[in-house]
Amino acid sequence: MKILVINGPNLNLLGEREPNVYGNETLSSINEELSVKAEKMGYELKFFQSNSEGELIDALHASRLDCAGVILNAGAYTHYSYAIRDAIAAIKIPVVEVHLSNVNSRDEFRKTSVIAPVCAGTIAGFGKYSYHLALDALDYRFSKEKK
Ligand code: DQA
Q: Which atom of ligand 1 is nearest to the CA of 10?
């Protein structure tokens, strides 16, 4: 089973970007650690990062063809992209919304997620472990579907 991990704008700069908020680890090291966990659980992870809204939408569309689920950190697009929201609603596979930081304890605008209502659930505030928890959440969902 394949799962696509999508990271949106500015997340390519993890490690150097506001380390007090987002930590010191790079996106590739976070992805590597997540891959090791996924492999043990029997999943194959694919990774995609883009700073462009359209490319994120294309990746969501493509995921429906060969993936069982998506882990999505849409970055700031979370807070205002109706186009990404519509792309999530258009595909039938579960999408878990992820944030490294606790978006509810930061700026007012970060408290709004326009994608949350069409996602399977949201995990925020646990740094890189937010991605791990999202993987656990998808695994739990798939195991329930089998029953
Ligand atoms: C983020 C939170 C967003 O508000 C912000 O724009 C990001 C990162 C997070 O992972 O905490 O780029 O999605």
A: 12
Q: What is the CA radius of gyration of the chain?
A: 14
Pocket test for ligand 1, best of 22, 101, 114 (most atoms within 8 A of CB): 101
Q: What pLDDT digit, counting tens, does each position of 41-68 carry?
A: 999 999 999 999 999 999 999 999 999 9
- Express the helix, strand and coil content of the chain in percent, nearest 5 each: 55, 20, 30
CATH number of 2-146: 3.40.50.9100
Q: Which positions ≥6 away from 55 have C-beta within 8 Å?
A: none
Q: Which of 43, 77, 99, 132 is catalytic?
A: 99
Substitution candidate for ligand 1 out of 71, 103, 122 with most atoms within 8 A of CB: 103
Cut 0.85: pTM above it = yes
- Listed in sequence order, the residues at least 6 apart from 113 whose beta carbon sits closer than 8 Å to its beta carbon are 78, 79, 97, 103, 122
